[in-house]
Specification:
Helix content: 40-55%
Number of strands: 7
Distance between the termini: 49 Å
Shape: elongated
Structural class: alpha/beta
Number of helices: 11
Strand order of the largest sheet: 2-1-3-4
Largest sheet: 4 strands, parallel
């Protein structure tokens, strides 16, 4: 896309104090040479200093950020209008001067009862911006995937996660970095090595895991060439569902005659 055909994007929320400011700064930071980005609020407030701090921490420019009313943009045309909260979507359901309107429903970080709420909201916005750029402007090639990433069909990937043994094996492998069949048998309390090996073979055939042989052992790990979206699914599933493998982690800690990774890695 040539710089002479810059796209205009407007982010709308209620107060224009956090979510829309984060989105404006982040899209400008990531693709400012291709987009003119604005933000506004239906009932504007002061920009929250916590929003500015989370941007400053990532060296994202905040100098252009200030709260403004939606009414100040009356009559201005935008290629894309994106609402970030239910109130803004309800009040501006059909913005007249735009080619398309999207609705991203994001919780207000000011009311989220969790640690690092603004950083988490920024990450959620970053994920949505990545999706927006990939879907609407694939020619920009702004993906974070390495050029060496393999292609994997989403249906193949998700089918591999539908089996309990395969899912837990992936979660444990992600948590530990590398595990062999005997370690997975101990962790999963699985008596049948052929059964476990068949499931690992399914993951290996799909290129989700790779195996490295050392002596009598084959150590498995998440394929480093998986595309980032697939790695993220495995990582987030593991992080937010540790209860599924907590017993397995403890079982592995108490395993006798565990293979030596020192010799393997040496």
């Amino acid at each position: 896309m040539a710089t002479s055909s810059r796209q205009s994007v407007l982010f709308l929320c209620t107060g224009n104090s956090a979510r829309s400011q984060l989105a404006q700064a982040l899209l400008t930071h990531r693709a400012g040479e291709y987009f003119d980005v604005s933000s506004a609020g239906t009932n504007p407030e002061t920009v929250d200093p916590r929003a500015l701090k989370v941007l400053d921490d990532l060296s994202i420019d905040t100098s252009a950020l200030y709260a403004k009313s939606f009414s100040e943009l009356d009559g201005q045309r935008f290629d894309t209008v994106i609402t970030l909260c239910d109130d803004a979507q309800a009040q501006c359901r059909e913005y007249q001067n735009t080619s398309q309107q999207l609705a991203w429903h994001l919780s207000d970080p000011k009311s989220r009862r969790q640690e690092h709420a603004f950083a988490k909201t920024l990450q959620e916005i970053d994920d949505l911006i990545s999706l927006f750029l990939a879907a609407e402007f694939p020619q920009l090639n702004t993906t974070d995937d390495h050029e060496s990433a393999i292609d994997i069909e989403p249906t193949v990937f998700y089918k591999c996660l539908t089996d309990d043994i395969r899912l837990k094996a992936l979660m444990l492998t992600h948590y530990h970095g590398e595990l062999c069949v005997c370690e997975l048998m101990a962790a999963l309390d699985e008596d049948s090595q052929p059964k476990l090996s068949r499931n690992l073979a399914v993951l290996k055939k799909a290129d989700i895991i790779t195996g490295r042989k050392h002596g009598q052992w084959v150590f498995y790990r998440i394929n480093p060439q998986l595309p980032q979206w697939a790695k993220t699914v495995i990582a987030q599933t593991t992080r937010h569902n540790l209860a599924l493998i907590s017993d397995s982690i403890h079982s592995l800690k108490s395993m006798n005659d565990r293979p030596s990774k020192n010799k393997f890695c040496g």
